[in-house]
Amino acid sequence: MQAFPSKRAPAFADIPDEKWQDWRWQLSHRLNSVEDFEQIVSLTESERKALSQRGLFRVD
Hints:
This protein has about 60 residues and is mainly alpha-helical. It is about 40% helix and about 0% strand.
């Protein structure tokens, strides 16, 4: 079976494949906050507000 090529955000371009594909690395580098997401993608005000709501979305 051929591995699925993952499209990475530019912020993760320098991460070696063996780390990128390691679930432990993924878990330890997960996005936990609105600020983390904003470093990777542009959020609309609505998205920012929704991600900030307690209990609405689990963000991590």
